Amino acid sequence: MSKRILIILCSIFFTPALIWFSAQVVSGSDDDHTERSGFLLPQKHSTNLTREQLRGKELYQYYCALCHGRTGKGDGFNSFNMSVPPADHTDATVMSTLSDAQIHQVIKEGGSSLGRSPMMPPWGRVISDSEINTLVAYIRTLVTSGK
Ligand code: HEC
Fold first, then answer.
1. Is the residue at 16 inside a domain?
2. Positive or negative CA dihedral for 30, 126, 135, 43?
3. How far is the CA of 39 from the CAs of 32, 43, 61, 106, 110, in angstroms?
């Protein structure tokens, strides 16, 4: 058998395999960027969080940290331009006045739904109810100070 025939035979067998393989890779991806496996950064130092809280953390870093800051102190880089400062989720005095249902509502329907500033945007169209629950669970882990 000449080399050329061998090459032709190989491409006949391998092309479908290659197409099948790339189809697998493509169908594994999702439009929602936050679902991509690469989105979860290594979480070596936060193994004390539950799966649910970790998911909340991912969403928080993506959507909320901009205003509320990466650690929830209300010091995200947007916060310096805002007339009403973003809530400080580490403040136990403030956070203990809010029920889980109220936190859920504020996230879903925005600050104005609870008589707070509309500077806190509504997320109901972007983040599903069950994902908002993970955010509530994560926000509850941020309380550190009793000031
Ligand atoms: C554009 C900036 C901005 C972004 C982004 C933002 N927030 Fe807020 N958030 C605010 C501001 C401002 C307030 C304070 C409203 C007030 O006190 O009147 C607030 C308040 C809150 C409160 C407390 C409400 C209360 O009753 O005290 C919670 C909880 C909250 N945000 C959660 C979130 C979550 C979760 C996200 C991400 C999904 C998020 N926020 C994204 C600006 C933002």
1. no
2. positive
3. 10, 11, 11, 25, 25
**The domain containing residue 69 runs over which residues?**
48-140
60: three-class secondary structure by DSSP: helix
**CA-CA-CA-CA torsion sign (113, 116, 119, 120):** negative
Structure tokens at 91: 């403040």
More confident residue, 71 or 30: 71
22 vs 80: which has the higher pLDDT: 80
Number of Cβ atoms within 10 Å of the Cβ of 132: 21
Pocket residues: Cβ below 6 A from ligand 1: 63-64, 66-68, 78, 82, 84, 86-87, 98, 103, 106-107, 111, 114, 116-117, 119-121, 123, 135, 139
